[in-house]
Write a structure and sequence with these properties.
Single-stranded DNA-binding protein; elongated; 5 strands; alpha+beta; ERF_bacteria_virus; two-stranded antiparallel sheet; 44% helix
Length: 218
């Protein structure tokens, strides 16, 4: 006789109940709203509790590396791999899965930021909570694969790239987000998948203008 797997059915009910979560967070750098980890946890936690399910985290890997910004100050970038286990309090069943996370901080919070990020996306992906971040909207990949490029394809100068890096770090500090977040949102703004070292002159020029505008308005 095949044992009935009730945990999967319970998790499916949780998925059905979590229809949407409001975007109460606001990114000052890129001017967009996003879902807060605390809002995800609050909504999912209540429904999991109704089903007698616990979600237990376990850090299976961690590393911390130093990063020196343009001012010579040391910041820390933490990378973690979190294992999350759903435990069914009624049947004893369990389901495990892993999610990576990364966080950056000038103090001692890099690890905690990495853990928080991993937990947020673990819940959002496990229960298929929509975010609107669809990779199919990434036109940069299609343009490169089809040999199409916008504007001047001449590589940016070293002076341009140094200024982009400097402004990105300044904006990140002023808007209280990580350099990685500032850089990621800058690439979205430019609609490019080029890494900074591969920016064209046009991309670097647009990046500098945009970052200067954010600095003035932040």
């Amino acid at each position: 006789m095949i044992e009935e797997r009730k945990l999967v059915k319970k998790l499916a009910r949780v998925m059905k109940e979590v229809k949407s979560i409001p975007k109460n967070g606001f990114n000052k750098f890129h001017k967009y709203n996003y879902v807060l980890e605390s809002d995800v946890a609050e909504k999912v936690r209540e429904i999991l509790a109704d089903e007698n399910i616990m979600m237990i985290p376990n850090m299976t890997y961690q590393s911390v590396r130093e990063h020196k910004n343009h001012k010579g100050n040391i910041e820390y970038i933490a990378t973690v791999v979190m294992e999350f286990t759903f435990y069914d309090g009624d049947t004893g069943e369990e389901i495990c899965f892993q999610v990576p996370g990364e966080g950056q901080d000038a103090g001692d919070k890099a690890i905690y930021k990495a853990i928080t990020g991993a937990q947020k996306y673990a819940m959002m992906k496990a229960f298929m909570i929509p975010t609107g971040d669809d990779p199919e909207t990434d036109t940069g990949t299609d343009e490169r694969n089809n040999g199409y490029s916008k504007g001047n394809s001449t590589p940016a100068s070293d002076n341009q790239l140094d200024l982009v890096k400097k402004l990105t770090e300044e904006v990140a500090k002023k808007t209280k987000i990580t350099v990685e977040e500032a850089y990621a949102t800058l690439k979205k703004r430019l609609n490019t998948n080029n890494e900074m070292a591969n920016f064209t002159k046009d991309e670097a020029s647009k990046a500098i203008n945009y970052l200067n505008g954010v600095k003035k308005g932040a």
